[in-house]
Structures are given as structure tokens and as C-alpha cells.
Amino acid sequence: MNDMQWTHIGAEPLPPPLPPTRVDFSGNRSEFRKLVTKGAMLELVTFGFYRFWLVTDIRRHLWTHTAIDGDAAEYTGRARELLVGFLFALAILVPIYLAYFLVGIEFERWQAFASTPLFIAFYAFGQFAIFRARRYRLTRTVWRGVRFWMDGSGWAYSFRAMLWGLLVLLTLGLALPWRAAALERYKMRHTHYGDLRGDFEADGWTFFKRGWWLWLLSPIAVVVFPLAPFFYAEFKAREWRWWLDGIRIGGVSLSSNLPHDAFYGLYWKVIGWWMLLTVAFAAYMGGSAWLVVSLTGVSAEEVFAGDNATKSIPMVAMMVIGYFALALAINIVMRVYLQRDLWAKVLETVEVHDIGAAADVRGSGQLAGALGEGFADGLDVAGF
Amino acid sequence: MSDVFAGTPAQSERPTIFFDGVSSRRRPVTLTLSDALEIVEDGATPVLWPYADIRRADSPPGILRLAATSAPPLARLEIRDAALAAEVAARCARLDEHRTTRSGVAKIVGWSVAAAVSIVCVVLFGVPLAADRLAPLVPQPVERRIGDAAEVQMKTIFGRSACEDPAGKAAFNKLVNRLRDAAGLDDTMTAGVLPTAVPNAFALPGGKVFVLKGLLDKAENPDELAGILAHELGHLKHHDNMRGLIYNGGTSFLIGLLFGDVTGSSAVIFASRSLVEASYSREAETGADTFAIEIMHALGRSPKPAAELLFRITGKEGGSGLTNILASHPLTEDRLARMTKEDRPASGPPLLTDKEWQALKGICGSGKV
Fold first, then answer.
1. Is A143 an 8 Å CB contact of chain B?
2. Distance from the A351 Cα atom to the nearest Cα atom in chain B, whole angstroms
3. What are phi and psi of B40, to 5 degrees?
4. Do B76 and A1 lie within an 8 Å CB cutoff?
5. Beta bridge partners of B65
6. CB atoms within 10 A of CB A7
7. Of residues A379, A360, A371, A382, the one with CA closest to residue A86
8. What H or E segment, with its residue span, contains residue A25?
9. Residues facing A362 on adjacent strands
10. CA distance B303 to chain A (A)
11. How many C-beta neighbours within 10 Å does residue A271 have?
């Protein structure tokens, strides 16, 4: 094996640095839209249980249509793993919730509302879950027949996240760039592709320099509504670019020229859809109220006053249907714009340098269980 | 019989690439389709994949990506030539065996609906039953500890310590003891008045009843207050706190499970929880009212004054359909109507003398709170 490696590299004797390779995303937008539409409907009829299958399908779509140096990645995770992970996480979380309740009572006996800080324990647990969920996703990510994997400890990560979080709180958010850098460094240094080790070289100071004025102006954005999406879009674009610039895996490095205004369109489209859907929902409610009144002959006052519950049942049913349709539509919009389009937009700006370093990597690392994703789901901190 | 595609110009344009699942090296290969799929790399021993082991892996359009169950799990063969891909695919009978089919999706839907139905049944029938059966079995010390914790909280909200005027306290104790004896509760229960202007009263787990000064101020005679106290004793007698605790804990957990969020934060969870919990709470309140009526009758007094006191505090409550469904208590006017029906002329002695009643009104001292 070893001499094959040498012959391979020898075939291209250390050339002048190769031009950076691009990352291509070839996913078809309408195919993705159909995928999430069908998924959202199934989520509805399954009371949400379909989410494990949907999230798996979304990842499979995004991963397989992402090609680095001409070779597409692959997501090998399966929904059944997520379901089992979720059930296991429940089995662990239930006793924890009970213990939380009992400890809370003892605290309250001692001093009213003394148990409030206990929720911090859940925050710590959430950070642990975020780390472990990332590990699951990464070990299901395969490129050129070799998987990514992670070591490191979820609790060590959680501990760091907590300390940095405290610092961010004390500095009113100023320490945020350094927190992001420190946590990303921990995650990336424990990330591996085969026998290549990851690293994160961006520092908090760079991030700070790119975004400090946003921090300064953020109180204005809170007051003046139309500014907030712009600010958030600016912040996210700067954060993404900074993050991508810092990523290293072995000798391979990434860079991105994501423009600062890259996400304006995306966020405004989502807001536009929100408004449109809300208006449509209001119109639907008005229309169905009119329909109920004119069909049943019950006066509008009675439909809403509802001293007699049976008279308001048609209206309540229409409301529930409308609510679910709204939730479904918003789900689709969020996934198409904020997952698929954002993914495509970011990837088209990415350049990969020295990809040759990943030309002959030995596979290693074990598959991680889906328990972390289960916790993340149970604690409501699930990511992509 | 074997088709050999080796070295044809068409293939070199759209190369077939093999990843052996051990290293990330791209290996340009040629395929020989004999009894098994032969993957031939220049200068290496061919790799054999039996057709029956070959499965399709996710791939972008234009590439057929294959894996084999007998090969290393991440070994992949990528065929970019459409004709060759079709040729290979035709031989692999079990290519798509592992993929989720339409019936697979139907199965997911079926199981989810079954799970949802069973969860709903448990919420509607199982949890109330469990709460009713378990609540009386909760050991006294546990109930008391929970009550202690709640008491500390209540006192933080409603004033540090209970009112202690000796004459007022004596009158209050007399009233409470008469009600307690009629209710058949043991003497572990305690009662007190908290100095706050909010007109309310509540029972805590472990036999603690608190009347807030605001209610006392609005009460015009001992019967009004007694009816309210009897209602709270009804909650104690029925273990309503523990029942509510078990019931609310159980439903929020199960509904959270249903919608996939154990902490229960989203709107759907909130709405459905409010609905079922409110109906359960209304039932408990009606039960406590029934109990209060019985006690007041047993003491030879009318339950009606208590409802009149309530009505003075809340006014007419009947509003839109939604608030009725979500209300945690029965509407005051309905309660007043019920108590009026149960109104009987007093047959027993007054519960407190005028002097005792005046002392009770001044239990928190003469000053305003």
C-alpha cells in the first residue's frame, strides 16, 4: 500500500501550487422542493414522527449533490437510527426530568425560586447534545470511500461552552467571537477525515473586526423593524465566511469569498413568504367564518360567542385545518430557503486549497451512535 | 459469456472510478461483467463483487454509485458511462432492495398513527385514571415536602409570614376546626391568612390552606368565608394537588412525545395541553364545590353566600367559546346558580359570633396591607 502512495504522489512531482478546486452543488431546486413538500405532509399525518425520515432525506439530498474536486459526498445515516436514538434519549431524559423535579422541590423548600438556576443544567446538557449530534452527522459523511469522524468529549465541550457563555453574558455579547472561535477550535481539532486531523485557524479577533459595528448598532435594529433582517443577514454572512476561512483538514484548507450582503435576498424572501402566508391565513379565516355563518344560518356572534359549544365546532375545525396548512407552508419555505438555498449560496463561494493532501487518506474512526441526535431532538437544540 | 469494456475510448472519457473503502484514492478501473462484477485496476488483483451483493448508493445524477454488502462498507464503485451503468444495473437483481418504498412509507404512517392514537387514549383515559389512583397513595411525607416547597414560594409572592393577631387567629382556628371536623380531615392540616390584597384562597399539597387578606376583606359574613374554606378542604380531601401534578406531568410529557419535543415549547403543545388540562381542572373544581356544599349542609349553613362572594369578586365571566373551553374553573355564574339551588335556610348555629367575626377581619392588624 505504501509504495502505491509514493508512486501516486511521484506521478505529479510537487507541482507549482495547483489552482484551488471548487465545491459544486448540483442539487435540483424543484426536486428538493418536492422532497420537503411531501415530507412536510407526511410529517403532518404522522404527528411529526416522519421528521426522522425527512431530515435524513434532506441530508442525503444535500450531501450527494455536493461534489468536492469532482467527487460527490454521501450521507450514510438512516432514519431508523435517529428514531432509535430518540427513543433511547427519552428513556434517559425521563428519569433526569424526574430527578430535576425532586431536586427542585428540595431547593424550593430551602428558598423560594432557588431551583431556577437548575435549568442551567439543561443548557449544559443541550451543549453536550449539540456536540454528540455533530459527531453522529460527521461519521455518516463519506467522501471518496472514507468517512469523517470525531473524538473528544461532549462533556468537555459542554464545559467550555458554559464558561464561554458566562463570559459572553458578562461582556454583553462582546466575547461572542472568541467563544465561537474557541468552540469551533475544539470541534475541528477533534474532527478527522480518515487519518487527517482537522484544525480551525480563524481567531476571535478577526471575527470581531468584521462584525463589531453590528454589535454596536444592534439596539437600533431592535427598534427599527426593517433593519433587523439586514443586520442578521450581515452577521450570518460574516460568520459563515469567517468560519469557512478557518477550516483545515490535514493540509487541505478552505476559503470563501462570501459577500457580506449574500443573505439579504434569502431572508427577505422568507419574510415575504411569511407575510403572504399570514395574509392568506387571515383571508382564509375570514372566508371560512363567512362560509360557516351563511351555510349553518348561525349568526356570526353565536359562532364566536359560543355559549353553545356545538355551534362553534365547524369554526374550530376550520381553524385547526388552517393552522396546520399554515405550519406546513412555513415549514416548506424555511427548508427551501434557509437550508437548501443557503447551502447552495455558501458552497458556490468556497474554494478548496491543496486538495492533493487528501488524495490518499487511510480510512479510520468508528461510527458514532445516534443518541446525541436523540438528545438534541428531545431538548429542542437539533441543528441541520 | 462476458462483456469486456476494457480500454474502449468511450470509457476513458467517462471513467469508472473505484474507491476501495480503505483509502480515499481514486482508482480508475475497468469492469468485466462475468459471473460476478470484476473490478480491474491496472497492476492490482481484480476485486470481485457478486451481483446479488450489489446495492445502489446515493449519487448525483449521471453517476451510478454502487456498494456491495460483501465488500468493506464504504467501498464505492462509480460508473459514469450511461450504457455501462445500465448494463451493470440490469444484472443486479437486488440493486434497490434496501431503499424505502411506497409501502415502507405507508408502514411509517400506519405505525405513527397507531402510536398517536394510543398516546391520545392514554392522555384522555389512562393519565386521569393513574392520577386518581396514585394521588391517594403518595406517602404523606412526600406530599408534605412538596407542600413545604410551594409554601415557601407562596409566602415569597404574597407576604413573608402569616397574620398573627391572637384574637383573630383564635376565631380563624375555630372556623377552620369546625369545617375540618365536618370534612373528616385529620389534624395534620394547617391554615393561615397571608397579608396581601389579592382576593383569593388556595390549598397546597400536604394539607395547607391559605386565605389571602383580600378575600377576607371582601367577605361580609362568616358563611361566605366558610364556603370558600370548605371548597379548599375539598381539594385537600380529594388530593387534587397531587392528582393535578401527576396529571399535568403525565400529559405534558406524553403530548411532548407525540409532537417530538419533550420540553414542550411549541404552540401546538401549549394549545392541546391547555385544553385537556383545563377540562381536568374544571372537573376537580366542580368536585370541590360538591364537597363544600355537603360540608355546609352538614353544618346546617347555606353554601350560597360563598358563591355570592365569588360573584362579587369576579363578576359575570361568560365570554367567547374559546375562553370557556380554556377556563380552569367553572364559570362563576354557573357556580352561583348551583349554590343557589342548594340554598337552604340555616338550621345550625352561626359558625362564629359577631365578635369573633370582627376579630377575624382584623387578623392582619388594623393597617392596610
1. yes
2. 20
3. -110, 120
4. no
5. B57, B78
6. 9
7. A371
8. strand A21-25
9. B23
10. 26
11. 13
Cell numbers of B353, please? 359570633
CA A46 to chain CA centroid, nearest Å: 22
Exposed, middle or buried, A144 (CB in 10 Å: 0-12/13-18/19+)? buried
A174, A225, A269, B175, B264 from A228: Cα distances, Å: 19, 6, 14, 61, 28
Kindly list the domain boundaries of chain B, sorted by start residue. Answer: 16-91, 118-361
Chain B neighbors of A93, CB-CB under 8 A: 262
Question: How many CA within 13 A on the CB side of residue A183?
Answer: 23
| Radius of gyration, alpha carbons of chain B | 37
Collapsing DSSP states into helix, strand and coil, what is residue A380?
coil
B3 three-class SS: strand
Cell numbers describing residue B255: 403530548
d(CA B78, CA B63) in angstroms, rounded, equals 6
Q: What ipTM was predicted for this assembly?
A: 0.80
Q: Is the dihedral of CA B82, B88, B91, B95 positive or negative?
A: negative
Among A135, A257, A142, residue whose Cα is nearest residue A186: A135
Q: What is the DSSP letter of A75?
A: E
Which cell goes with A288?
371560512
Residue B51 C-alpha, separation from nearest chain A C-alpha, in angstroms: 20
Which grid coordinates are listed for B226? 366558610
Instruction: State whether A380 and B261 contact (CB < 8 Å).
Output: yes
**DSSP 8-class letter at A361:** P
The rounded distance, in Å, linking the Cα atoms of B267 and B269 is 5
Residues whose CB falls within 8 Å of the CB of residue B271, separated by 6 or more in sequence, listed in order = none
Name all contacts of B274-277 with Cβ < 8 Å and 24+ positions apart.
B274/B326, B275/B325, B275/B326, B276/B123, B276/B124, B276/B251, B277/B247, B277/B248, B277/B251, B277/B328
A79 chain-B contacts, CB cut-off 8 A:
100
Contact check, Cβ <8 Å, B153/A362: no
User: What is the grid cell recorded at A362?
Assistant: 487511510
Tens digit of pLDDT at every position of chain A (384 positions): 344 444 444 445 555 667 889 899 999 999 999 999 999 888 888 877 888 899 999 999 999 999 998 899 999 999 989 988 888 888 888 788 778 777 777 777 776 666 667 778 888 888 999 999 999 999 999 999 999 999 989 999 999 999 999 999 999 888 999 999 999 999 999 999 999 999 999 999 999 998 888 888 888 877 777 888 888 899 999 999 999 999 999 989 999 999 988 999 999 999 999 999 999 999 998 888 888 778 776 666 555 554 445 556 777 778 878 888 888 888 899 999 999 999 999 999 999 999 888 888 888 877 788 787 777 776 666 555
- Contact (Cβ atoms closer than 8 angstroms) between residue A36 and residue A26: no
Matching residue, cell 409572592:
B157
